[in-house]
Amino acid sequence: VRSVFVLAFTYAIVTAGMAVQIGFSQQIVFSQSVFMGVGAYGVALLNTHWNIPSLLGALIVMLGAGLVALILGSVVTRAAGLALAVVTLMLPLIAVGYISSANYLGGSVGMPLTSSLWNAATPEAIALGNGLITVAVVGAVVFVCSRMLSSDIGLELYVLGGSVPAPTPSRSSAGCLVRANRGTAVGLAYQPGAAPGHGGHAVQFVGELARVDRGDPGPVRARGGGGGDREEGESRRGDHRASSIADTRARWCFQA
Amino acid sequence: VKFGNLLIAGLVTGSIYAVFAVCVAVWYRVSNILNLAVGDFAMFCALSVDYLVRVEHWSLAAAIAATLAAVGIFAAAYDQVVLRLAQDGPRRQEGIVITFFFTFALAFFIDGVAKILFGTQVHAAPALWNGSSLTFGGDLHLERAGVLVLGCAVISGAMFALYIRYTLSGKAMAACGENHLGARIVGISPRQYRLIIFLVTAVLAAIFGIVESPITGCTYLSGATISLTGFIAAAYGGFQKPGRALLAGLAIGVLEALLGGYVSTQYGDTLMYAILAALVLARPRALGFESAVGG
Lengths: 256, 295
Hints:
The complex is a heterodimer.
Chain A: H1 2-24, H2 32-50, H3 54-76, H4 81-99, E1 111-112, H5 123-149, H6 152-160, H7 168-173, H8 178-198, H9 202-214, E2 221-222, H10 236-255
Antiparallel strand pairs in A: 1-2
Helix pairs in contact in A: 1-5, 1-8, 2-3, 2-4, 2-8, 3-8, 5-8, 6-8
Chain B: H1 2-31, H2 38-54, H3 60-88, H4 96-101, H5 104-118, E1 134-136, E2 140-142, H6 144-166, H7 168-178, H8 180-185, H9 190-216, H10 222-236, H11 242-263, H12 268-282
Antiparallel strand pairs in B: 1-2
């Protein structure tokens, strides 16, 4: 029950960001999973290396993720449409390639998370606390997104997304800052993408997904991608392929 | 010698990218939809042939024929049931979201079916050309399956490029994607071309899955990776030009091999994707993203 609950709300948080990006401004961006990784690895790093409690770590990482989203958004929005989709499709590939070879992040195995978001005496109380935090994050994300979309920024994003039929020059001459608003849309979409990585207990969610892929009951781990089907006797090339395939599947699951 | 072997390895890998890029590009040209399930057809066919030969003890030829027939029938059924309703109904749907998501669900469906039927282990279709690797100039090596892969890529890419450029039906096919309504007004049937090309690319991907799986191995999750590499290579070919998609696929494969061989084995892929992303950001128009760049 806990797993289903966490999954549902984790998807809800990511979907809130994607609704801004894909549904409202009609820009396809494929890198929400990168920000889930930022959230998951960020909290795990703060937790294991500096003994910062997960809840405080989550707040710190949320701020950091917002900053990264701003910088990344300002770069990738040089492109639009299919070009933007292709560029942002590369970001998970770059992130997974880097993380799976970075020893300080646990390489392809992942990082252990030593404490839960909400600490309590019984597993039921921990699950309840984590669930309530997840609900609070979902509510906050939906509130912020809906407030921004009902403002002038939302109106410009609506025009940018083609809901009002007008070519780009017309949108620009009407005062719609096309590129700036594309950046806003990307930033809005990325930030909630980061939230489930820490606030929504997604370190466990991602870890469980990886564990299901590998078929072994390992400890809870933070992973930016996924696991892989490892079979005895497969070639090195096949092993690499299986791993990258699983990573890709995990990414696509997130993107969906 | 090292450069030569890396070049050969890169060309073989690039050929895999190239064929799927060609399939993506050709169908996009006619339907304006990206076929993200193209790799899943390849995966399904490779695993199916392996299963029929290894477990059911069918002959290789019979297994291939039965699997290709099944893929063809399924592709036709998907076009008639899903794409026809979405594209030919009174409310034809267009836009960048539709471009991606029509075949996304299909990819997941095929993956799920493959997992139930063939399990999760790594398998490969039997090699069509058995034997030790071929040797050139003393120290240059090329696997026999690699020759087939390379040949398959060049033939399919050239075939589609020539078809679109020099035949009347090829031009009609291109017209369907450029102006759907205009094509219908002058008597071209976009529905028919969409069905034919979807079926042909699905079967071509399936054949290529059989040819290339002895090199890479295959699981029920392989389709996503294959489609992804095809999509990226097709993007650098401008999405609509099979000839350019072929060259882009080969170039990406060679770049990947050279970066892995000379710069970093660990971070070769990461570097390559960073370079490709930077290229799109720096020169989107030059790379053929004209229709994608909105301002």
